């Protein structure tokens, strides 16, 4: 799990920003919806507090503005870059479920692109629901900016949690190179999604301590280290959920079967 989780975390570092570029470009240049675009930056604030969140938002706005109008080919290339996390994740899930044969690189990329589109669509739905709520609230409620912002944050969190659980279910179900019992994955997806939400709040609560420690140890690299460490812990939680589901179903890895023979 340690090896797979670090591989996934490294791919998150490489794919996270390109995926954000695609999402903001779609909201700005395709949908033309400023409220949905602002919800992306609101989500970044909830996951990355303080200076790190501001750093990502500032550079994301500058990058999207520099790229200009929406272009299909660069966006497809960015999506191809963003699906790198699914290759080590597939191998890890296959290992958890005792599947000895991994997909070929080409087939993995096809499945990964499909998952990227599904995940991106679900995230867009979450953003659109939050944007609708923001527009309705601004029209019908008090125009006080602080109240409106608080309501927007609460609605985003309410919409994001179930959608993240659906995303986890799709990954657990579709990514392994074998038939996985869908019924068993439902409670696991709910538990892992809830645990990741707790991790997010814990990170926000402990952020001043984490920032001081990482800044002292890594200096100018602490932004990248923060993303890698957060992704590593989140990846461990996702993999532990898959391992728990496989054990509860009664499926063991070939390695475990060999140990029983000895």
Key attributes of the depicted protein:
mainly alpha; globular; 262 residues; single chain; disordered C terminus
Please, could you describe this protein's structure?
This protein has 262 residues and is mainly alpha-helical. The protein has one domain (2-248). The protein is built from 10 helices and no strands. Helix 2 (34-47) runs antiparallel to helix 3 (50-67) and helix 7 (145-174) crosses helix 8. The radius of gyration is 20 Å and the shape is globular.
Topology summary:
Blueprint: H1 2-30, H2 34-47, H3 50-67, H4 72-82, H5 86-96, H6 105-140, H7 145-174, H8 182-218, H9 222-249, H10 254-261
Helix pairs in contact: 1-2, 1-3, 1-4, 1-5, 1-9, 2-3, 2-6, 5-9, 6-7, 7-8, 8-9
Compute the number of helices: 10
Tell me the strand percentage band. under 5%
Number of strands: 0
Q: Write down the Rg.
A: 20 Å
Question: What oligomeric assembly is this protein in?
Answer: single chain
Secondary-structure element string: HHHHHHHHHH
Unreliable stretches covering 5 or more consecutive residues:
253-262
| Overall structural domain count | 1
Distance between the termini: 23 Å
The biggest sheet amounts to: none
Please state the structural category. Answer: mainly alpha
Provide mean pLDDT, rounded: 79
Backbone shape: globular
Portion in helices:
over 70%
Brief overview:
The chain has 262 residues and is an all-alpha fold. Helices cover 85% and strands 0% of the residues.
């Amino acid at each position: 799990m340690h090896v797979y989780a670090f591989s996934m975390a490294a791919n998150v570092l490489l794919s996270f920003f390109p995926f954000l570029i695609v999402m903001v470009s779609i909201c700005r240049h395709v949908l033309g919806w400023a409220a949905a675009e602002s919800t992306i930056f609101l989500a970044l604030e909830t996951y990355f507090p303080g200076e790190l969140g501001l750093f990502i938002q500032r550079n994301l706005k500058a990058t999207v503005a520099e790229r200009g109008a929406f272009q299909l080919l660069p966006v497809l290339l960015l999506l191809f870059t963003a699906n790198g996390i699914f290759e080590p994740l597939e191998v890890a899930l296959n290992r958890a479920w005792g599947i000895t044969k991994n997909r070929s690189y080409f087939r993995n990329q096809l499945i990964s692109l499909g998952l990227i589109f599904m995940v991106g669509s679900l995230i867009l739905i979450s953003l659109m629901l939050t944007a609708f709520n923001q527009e309705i609230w601004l029209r019908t409620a008090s125009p006080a900016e602080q109240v409106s912002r608080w309501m927007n944050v609460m609605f985003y969190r309410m919409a994001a949690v179930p959608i993240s659980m659906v995303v986890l279910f799709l990954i657990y179900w579709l990514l392994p190179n074998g038939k996985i019992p869908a019924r068993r994955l439902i409670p696991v997806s709910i538990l892992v999604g809830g645990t990741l939400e707790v991790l997010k709040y814990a990170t926000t609560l402990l952020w001043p301590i984490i920032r001081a420690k990482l800044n002292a140890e890594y200096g100018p690299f602490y932004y990248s280290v923060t993303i890698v460490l957060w992704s590593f812990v989140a990846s461990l939680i996702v993999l532990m959920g898959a391992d728990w589901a496989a054990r509860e179903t009664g499926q063991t890895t070939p390695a475990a079967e060999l140990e029983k023979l000895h």
